[in-house]
Amino acid sequence: MSSGPTGRRKQKLKWSKLYTFSCLRPTTDESAPTDRLLGQPGFSRVVFCNESQLHKSKPHKYPNNYVSTTKYNLITFLPRALFEQFRRVANLYFLLAAILSVTPLAAFNPVSVIAPLVFVVGLSMLKEAIEDWHRFLQDRNVNSRRVKVHVGNGLFVQKSWESLLVGDIVKVSKNEYFPGDLLLLSSSYEDGLCYVETMNLDGETNLKAKRSLENTLGLDEDAAFCKFKATVRCEDPNPSLYTFVGNLDFEKESYPLSPSQLLLRDSKLRNTEFVYGVVIFSGPDTKAIRNSTRSPSKRSRVERKMDRVIYLLFGMMVLISLISGIGSALFTKSGNSKEWYLLLHDDTDNLFDPEDPMSSGLLQFVRALVLYGYLIPISLYVSIELVKVLQAMLINKDLAMYDETTGKAVEARTSNLNEELGQVEMILSDKTGTLTCNQMEFRKCSIEGISYGGEVTEVDLAASRRMNIDGSEDTKTGNSRISSSQKPTVVKGFNFRDNRLMDKMWIYRSNVSDMIMFFRVMALCHTGIPVEENRGNKLMYEAESPEEVAFLIAAQEFGFKFCQRTQSTLVLQELDPSSGLEVKREYKLLNLLEFNSSRKRMSVIISNEDGEIFLLCKGADDVIFDRLADNGRTYQQATVMHLSMYAEDGLRTMVFAYKKVGLPEYENWSSVFKQAKATIGPEREELLENASEMIEKDLLLLGAVAVEDKLQKGVPECIDKLAQAGLKIWLLTGDKKETAVNIGFACSLLRHDMKQLHLCLRKESPSNQQMKDVKEEILSQLQSYNQLITEENREGDPFALVVDGKALEVSLSYDVRNEFLSVAMKCDVVICCRVSPKQKALITRTVKEHSGKTVLAIGDGANDVGMIQEADIGVGISGMEGMQAVMASDFSLPQFRFLERLLIVHGHWCYKRISKMILYFVYKNIAFGLTLFYYNIFTGFSGQDLYDDWYMVMFNVLLTSLPVISLGVLEQDVSSDVCLKFPALYQEGQRNICFSWKRIIGWILNGILASIAVFTTSIYVLSPSALNKDGNVADIEHIGTITYTCIIWTVNCQIALMISHFTWISHFLIWGSILCWYLFLYSYDILPPTYSKNVFHIFTEQIGPAPVYWIATLLVLVISLLPYFTHIVIRRSFFPMDDHIIQEMKYSGTDVRDTPMWLREQEKSKQLTQVGYSARVDAKIRHLKEQLHKKRKSFYLSVTNSPVYKTVMRRDVVSTLH
């Protein structure tokens, strides 16, 4: 990095000469004695700067900078993965069954039990390994980032982050992230100042100023570190982002350190060419990593309910096993057991004693537990995991969710929660970077009580179209500006078109002096600096906030170009109204009083070339209006009206004012201010604030400005669809209340007729006020709001709750929480302002636990990680603010608008697919497993299996597993377009209609009926008649094979009836599975008897040629499917669901032939919506109709009360009488 004049152009400015308030960060008393803390527990860390080799061994050995988020490693994978698999009750049961299968108690060959278990567990472990491998690759990308590290003799070389050690000297360049927690030694600025963006840590977009110690300012080039040695003694690693206690021992002196010298990992260097720093905390010791938590194990609501279904099936299995054990004991005890052909006394079974019915019954119970294990679907878990992986692949490949601007697509980072996407009831969203682009645009202004840049909003246009009101030519052509130039906007950050101000036309307005002062406030009252020239002799700017950049760009467009800043001067190139030429003027900067959250205003005190002193002030409307002089309120009424209009359009507003300060007044104030600055102690801030109040009063109002925090593309439309789908949306932001409310209007979360309930502390509570009084104040507000909501008619009066950070902190305390959540859940929208990352996570956890609803959290920064991990589903925006939110998320999106399709389309599909899939598994395993039970009843509870061992293996592994995968991956009740047109369909998942206990029990009963139909029909068709012309009757092998064939046909045809959306894949897998059974049976029965045993030539020579085999199969199929077919006919004919109606309309072509009916069905989904663009348009229509009605009524009253009307009416009466 060059240190010459060109490279050091910006360094000339010494910001330490300008007093600024500490903005949005805790203050630290640097004079506090730290020596007494150092060396004590918690403050024992010692760092040897530029001697990192000393930290490779004890006693000062610290971890390297490698960071890992993986769940396993090579050593722990096998034990931990096996533990995870056998936490599932079904897998644990089959492990027990596998162990029993190698004992004499087994009813099957051990291979038939062990092979499916190994297959299922192996596939699940493979999936875990692949997902952890992806986490490892992401870690490697972070750990392999490069940074310049001092290796000796003033030489800096590029090294990977993971190789850094505590004590290393690093050089970080502009727009790079800090690789660890660094102690700032120097920067490209002469006074050691640097700017840091902490978006990834606290979500704040304004830049933070950090400053090195004066004693290390000389370390400003590579060669200066040849002989540099120092020792840092500081606090131990901790998660506190805003505190740091330590001393720097350098050149035999000790200097206290504060958070101002600490650069945190994952922060970004901005507006500074380079910094030098020493690594204090590395890897897992850094504050960013200490604030992160391991991603919790999340399971969907459907999967948790599926466990209870497994428990129910397990209970059924124990019950029928108990029946079998008791039945066996009773059969043994009866005289039937003494029949000679049973051979019960031949000692063929050492575990069976016909003389001891009780012990024999107990052993039979244990054997039955293994025999009836097919009631428990062992392949369910692995099939669902496979299906979810395929679903995730389809989600990832959806081109409708690909963002061409960034080249990024949606990514399902975990496949465990696909179906949970279809059951979301609440969305907790971050604002900056999630709903907005964090790009400010200058949109409107109000000067001298006149509004400029006015426009007809999209809401107005939509309302006009809905009311069939013809707009102006501008409206028809899409140009909604009331007065605009024909020149399109080409300047980034400036989206303002009004020919009354543009192209120097403002110089012809009346009262030009106030307009000049307005533009001077815009161009001089800021913290920005010019950084480079753009095309067309235009300057670019950087500042602590994006609003200031937008103001500087706008001022430049209006003819007031901010050119240069030094320690004490501001240079402005102004447009001179008298001559129409641009002149360069220099203003002396006397003081700068910076904006912060408590002041809500910023002021600069300047003197012009004539020696006149002015205070230029900008800030929130209420703060500025309170400080206006009596003669400075000329434009206040008009400005207030304009501010209200701007706010309703979702714009951020700020008011401009000024005053001329006399020299004696300034000198008197300056002495007071300097004395306050020189004060050391806790009263310093209060004295400074009081001094500021002395000068910031008796202001003259100039006007207001409105900037737009540009929403991401499609955000209002997305929120509208989500609201129609029945989702409630909460906005959680670290921004101030006014900003959050403006964004609420911009994205149509709020509307003008919505009653806003503001929950806040009435005033700043004094230090001696008890927490009890604060809680009582909040409780009183909550109770009054609760009563208001209860008394109001909710149909026409939507409510929005707006909560600030301090009130929220009290509201989340244990004894206030329930009352707060009671009010919040009744409101249509909740907006929480000034929320810390920890509060975001706490809100998410509290709402989830209190409401029991499925909560989705979405954010883009590291400050959203806690919220994302606490939610049932966490979504990260892969935007411009690093990858922390994405790495902690379950799903990542390029932009917020894709959440609409992710939930309403893919969420809806995945929920219905997984629900149908589980219900089908329950059905087919009951239908199959209970035939074994019926056969045991038929054979005196003998514990004998009806089917060949290989039949048992093939049932779940091949013959019924593939069609269910096609159901889980490709099924669609309606198309994606229909899902988006009818978002109310999404509410089926919210109400859990498809996986309710009513439906589960229904499918269990369907499986029981199918098993009865298959077994009884097979037995009674085959028992009374010969199998072939030779008179041979069916034995156990014949009955088992024929019954098995009927089961295969029944369960595969059943899934064909369940599918709404057939593809060639579905047909291929369903009918191919049936064909596979015949191919397997043919291949198996032609094997030598050594392998095929009792089924040798059973198909080719025995049952295949027998007509009764094919007739029985067809008869059983019809009888077993008849109950379900009858049910769906009755359901669709007399009790149709929404998707049934839409399917009928779509497939019958009603959507084309009867368009009004189709549109009417669409409108039904919007009737209950109080939030969103559509609801806002409806509210606007009601408002316009009310105004029209009032005007008509007023016109009617004015006409009927006029003397002319009365005279005419009197004449009519007289003429009528005559």
UniProtKB/TrEMBL annotation:
Enzyme Commission designation: 7.6.2.1
Localization per record: Membrane
Sites where the protein binds Mg(2+): 430, 432, 860, 864
InterPro entries: ATPase_P-typ_cyto_dom_N (IPR023299), ATPase_P-typ_P_site (IPR018303), ATPase_P-typ_TM_dom_sf (IPR023298), ATPase_P-typ_transduc_dom_A_sf (IPR008250), HAD-like_sf (IPR036412), HAD_sf (IPR023214), P-type_ATPase_IV (IPR006539), P-type_ATPase_N (IPR032631)
Record PROSITE patterns: ATPASE_E1_E2
Major localisation: membrane
SUPFAM superfamilies: Calcium ATPase, transduction domain A, Calcium ATPase, transmembrane domain M, HAD-like, Metal cation-transporting ATPase, ATP-binding domain N
Enzyme class, spelled out: translocase
Domain (P-type ATPase N-terminal) ranges: 47-114
Reactions it catalyzes: ATP + H2O + phospholipidSide 1 = ADP + phosphate + phospholipidSide 2
Pfam families: Cation_ATPase, PhoLip_ATPase_C, PhoLip_ATPase_N
Cofactor dependence: Mg(2+)
Domain (P-type ATPase C-terminal): residue spans on this chain: 886-1136
Its membrane topology: Multi-pass membrane protein
Binding site for ATP: 430-432, 548, 595, 618, 652, 733-735, 834, 840, 863-864
UniProt-recorded Gene Ontology molecular function terms: ATP binding; ATP hydrolysis activity; ATPase-coupled intramembrane lipid transporter activity; magnesium ion binding
GO cellular component: plasma membrane
GO biological process entries: phospholipid translocation
Keywords: ATP-binding, Magnesium, Membrane, Metal-binding, Nucleotide-binding, Translocase, Transmembrane, Transmembrane helix
Membrane-spanning segments: 89-107, 113-130, 309-331, 365-387, 918-938, 950-970, 1000-1022, 1042-1061, 1068-1087, 1107-1130
Residues at the catalytic site: 430 (4-aspartylphosphate intermediate)
Recorded family membership: Belongs to the cation transport ATPase (P-type) (TC 3.A.3) family. Type IV subfamily.
The protein's name in its UniProt record: Phospholipid-transporting ATPase
